Structure formats: C-alpha cells, structure tokens
Amino acid sequence: MENLETVIFQIILHGGNGKSSAMEAIQEAKKGNFAGAEEKLKESSAALNEAHHIQTSLIQGEIRGEKTEISLLMVHAQDHLMNAITMRDLASEMVDLYRAIKLPGTLN
Fold this sequence. Notes:
The chain is an all-alpha fold.
C-alpha cells in the first residue's frame, strides 16, 4: 500500500476537484449553458467517485484488520470529501433550478 499520507492527499485532491467542478457547473447554468453544466457535473461525479474508491479501499483494509491511523489530516480528508459530495448534490439541484428559470416548463 502507498504511504498513508499520499493516500489521504489523493482523497483531498479528488474531493477538491469534484467540488471545483460542481461550482463550475453552477456558473455554467447561471450563464444558460446547460450542456456545459451537465459536463461539469459529470466531471465532479467522476472525481468524487475516485475519492470514494480510495476511501472504500481504506475501509475494506480496516475490515481485514489493517488498522489505519486516525490523524487530523485523515479527519480533514473525510470532512473535505463529504462537503464536496454535498456541494455536488446541491449543484445538481441548482442546475435544475436555473434550467427551470431560463427554460420554463423543464422542471421535473
């Protein structure tokens, strides 16, 4: 297994990329570029899925008895990832709202 700090930083990196793409999706929707917004949401989901896979591998390791050191950095990575996932979910809703405002009759 890679150095634990490297793994933790990968969670932070992919979480940050996912959050940034989610914010970019909102900006694209605000401009009325819904195709661009959807693409940014896909990018966000891909980055967050990568972070989630890393997190899952740590959890599976712990289930197998491989203890993971809980550090402030690990807590930060988990917090960062969960906030990024929340941002992606909210961005998706905001894209839908912008679509409904700019293209009446499109809200599901």
